[in-house]
Amino acid sequence: MSPQSVLPPRSSNSAAGSPSLEESPELSQDEIFHLLQTNRRRDTIRYLLDMDAESVKMRDIAEHVAALEHETTVAELTSTQRQRVYIPLYQSHLPKLDKKGVIEYNKSRGIVRATDRIEIFRPHLEPYRDDAPDDDAERSIIGYFVSDYYATAIAASTSLLVASLLGVLALPGVMLGTIITILFVLATIGTNHGDSLLGAGTAE
Fold it and tell me: What stretches pass through the bilayer (predicted)?
């Protein structure tokens, strides 16, 4: 079912001359990205997505956007800061969103209602999660410890062998061979375990 068939018809309160949702074509990716180009339209859409109310006052949107721009609260806004955001929203940004069927904008009453079409913007406005585990980093760490352990086992075995041959370390041949074998067995087990962890991380 196409987006147009599930969207409710626009009310008679919409701006004059605006096409109904049934008449307006589905938004292309280029149009979506164009609407999201400006901070004020992005903040407006995000605000409407977060609101549960069926309709909101245009003034509330303008104050919210202005507060974000000036990194302050609505209560701390000056009249100048409000006006600098209110006028562009009133004259340009809200009419553009209304024309594309994203909102229903009653300009004379200063009332804005989001349509179902606004939901197509949600995935583009969801915050980026930077707390997700870094699989590449995890695999790199595992690989580092595995390779480091393997190198240590080789170095230790070589040192024991050299020390025994030079007479520095008096170890029976059987014991020396047993120690070296154990070191390499542990290194092999560690390598195989590391590979299985890397494979599991890649599969996820």
Answer: 160-189
Round to the nearest angstrom and report the end-to-end CA distance of the chain: 33
Averaged pLDDT score across all residues of the chain: 74
- Domain membership flag for residue 160: yes
The reply to whether 130 falls in a domain is no
Longest dimension (CA), the chain: 100
Q: Do both 81 and 169 map to the same domain?
A: no
Strands 111-114 and 56-57: antiparallel
In this structure, are 115 and 28 located in the same domain? yes
- Cα-Cα-Cα-Cα dihedral of 172, 178, 180, 185, to 10°? 180
| Residue-range definition of the domain harbouring residue 86 | 3-125
Residue 178 confidence (pLDDT): 73
In angstroms, the CA 25 to CA 3 distance is 9
Residue-wise pLDDT for 23-45, tens only, equals: 567 889 999 999 999 999 999 99
pTM as predicted? 0.53
User: Final residue of a domain: which of 81, 103, 125?
Assistant: 125
Contact 84, 62 (CB under 8 A): no
Instruction: Report the SS3 class of residue 188.
Output: helix
Q: Is residue 168 part of a domain?
A: yes
Domain count across the chain: 2
Residues in the chain: 204
Same domain, 115 and 198: no
